[in-house]
Design goal:
Radius of gyration: 32 Å
Helix content: 40-55%
CATH class of one domain: Alpha Beta
CATH architecture of one domain: 3-Layer(aba) Sandwich
CATH topology of one domain: Rossmann fold
Strand content: 15-25%
Largest sheet: 7 strands, mixed
Strand order of the largest sheet: 14-26-25-24-15-22-23
Membrane topology: Multi-pass membrane protein
Number of strands: 26
Distance between the termini: 51 Å
Number of helices: 24
Pfam families: E1-E2_ATPase (PF00122), HMA (PF00403), Hydrolase (PF00702)
CATH superfamily of one domain: HAD superfamily/HAD-like
Catalytic activity: Zn(2+)(in) + ATP + H2O = Zn(2+)(out) + ADP + phosphate + H(+)
Main location: membrane
EC number: 7.2.2.12
Structural class: alpha+beta
Amino acid sequence: MSVGNGTQREWRVTGMDCGSCAAKVRGAVERLPGVGNVDVALMAERLTLTLDVTQTPPESIESAVRGIGFGIAPRGAPPERPRGAFILPEGAFPDMTAEHAPESPARDEAPSEEPAAPSWYRTAKGRLVIGTGTLLAAAWGARLVFPAEVAHWAFALATLIGLFPVARRALAMARSRMPFTIEMLMTIAALGALVIGAPEEAALVVFLFAVGELLEGVSAGKARDSIRALSKLVPKTARLELGGSTREVAADRLGLGQVVQVRPGDRVPCDGEVIEGTSGVDESPVTGESVPSLKEPGSQVFAGSINTEALLRVRVTRTAGDNTIARIVRLVAEAESARAPTERFIDRFSRVYMPAVVAAALLVALVPPLVLGGDWGDWTYRALALLLIGCPCALVISVPASIASALSTGARNGLLMKGGRVIEAAAGITHVAFDKTGTLTLGRPRVTDMVVLAGSEAELLALAAGVETGASHPLGQAICAEAGRRGIAAAPATGGRALPGKGAEAVIGGVTVRVGSPRLAEERGALEDGVRTRVAALEAEGKTVVVVMRGDVPLGLIALRDEPRADAAEAVRQLGALGVSPLMLTGDNPRTAQAIAEGLGIDHRAGLMPEDKVAAIRDLRSGARVMMIGDGINDAPALAAAQVGVAMGSGTDVALETADAAILRNRVTDAAGIVRLARATMANIRQNIAIALGLKAVFLVTTVLGITGLWPAILADTGATVLVTMNALRLLTFRPSAL
């Protein structure tokens, strides 16, 4: 449809519990004029599309979704209870007769307390199971007490009553131009069984279908709850300091720069910086790191982490909608739209699969009686059983169920991946390229030597700090920190800018001052033989050297050293054990790079500009699948060039936005954890596909041969769906860090 004047719209859709539900919602709105770019996220319960309101108003979208039995509400509005009698209402709806649930926040707002989910027997699907089960038991009782003819009608009545909501949904789908649904196949099969005189089996099939629907809903709810649990980590209130006193306020109302108190045992209500106090903070709810992290003035804390020892005063650095937990929830929710190639293939296959099975059922019903003189009743019965095998629910849910579980497990362990495409790509990784500074090393270099060529150390450091004021690169921050430690004020500077891969420059006292690598100084013709010798000597000690220049005149050298992370060598070992080749890419000088690389046992390429890192990644990609891990602005192009780009959690926002995944707890060994989780997920997906197709194939053959009938056929569908979902939920217990 034409959507040239369309705008992006978003709704929350409740009642979806399998892949076919999402497909039904998509199909219901895609056919409307002015609608495009339709995306339905099952676990996030999100419908987004581009809508031209001059052709279709938003109310028509909502009517179309409600017409097929789902609840729908605009983003930020209270979620709506689904109207379909056999659609499971969301767990936050304790009053099943209410039209709406208590208000639920939008994804980018602070979470509010939700009532506990009702017991299964209080849900619409649960009541349908109880009702159909009671009717079936009553019909069996009638067979024992009354004549066979009475029992026959009892089973027929049980079938019709239990089938009514299913048939109503099937007709709604048919009106939306979706005739090939499990509800339609169920309706045809059950009514057909009544016509050929098999009411007992028809009633049993309706009951088993209801049980399967209930189990699907419960399983999907568990997977969805595991993701939503993330948003409940942030406390509702915070102790805000105001005018010398404290008062309790809503955590989602905290503003930038405000100061809150976090007592021992309290959860931190915001992302912020500690300004007073020293305490251990348990960050395991956010990053999965089990050992409490020491926090002192200047340290950063995450919303949702737990203060364990002493009172902390924390300055708010991110609002509620932009804190770490909110960003994780947003990334996980949005990741569902980045579907894996396998999932897209399954979707295309399922659209052909169901009509093909329906056609096969028609052939089974007609060909043997007409051509071979078979019994019409017998072959019609087999065809009806074959219809029940035609729904691809288990196949459709096989991939997204595993992906949703993997995303949740990753988030709970400090590993964020932006969707199924990333997981599938990470599973096939053969090479991992690391940036050095801030990734393999701590990213906290310190000044070790200063060589003055003109002026004094104080003047040299003041000029360098003036140029590097506000720098995001660890080397620049270290220079500023050293100036602060010595009590030297940074020289006033204007027009500061980064020179990617080389350094930075600014105007001080009307003259351009540059702080950069020896290569930059060489390009400016600022190095003499004596200075080169001194630079080489410092670099041979594993130090990084920067040259401070006024114009093109060198004023001095500043040497810094950054130590490798404690787990860097172990990360290299773990990757090797997984059959993945690690490589270090750095813009640092070859001598320093070699000293670090030899200590870690890793190959390296040094002296790389940002464009050189991109070229190195592209060169590797020609014969391998590459993951790039970095943390700085200059790493962003390389992150984008790799099959999978991973940002360290301490990295810049640019790196985090560019990357396909993020490591929140700054552990290099988590690189191997991402690969392990991705491979476990793809193995789980293959198992699910084998379960779904295997059961279908077995019952397809046994049905055509007359070995199995209607009720085993429905088990082939609902049973396979439940097995696939439960198998996917096993990923929730997977530990990516396990060796």
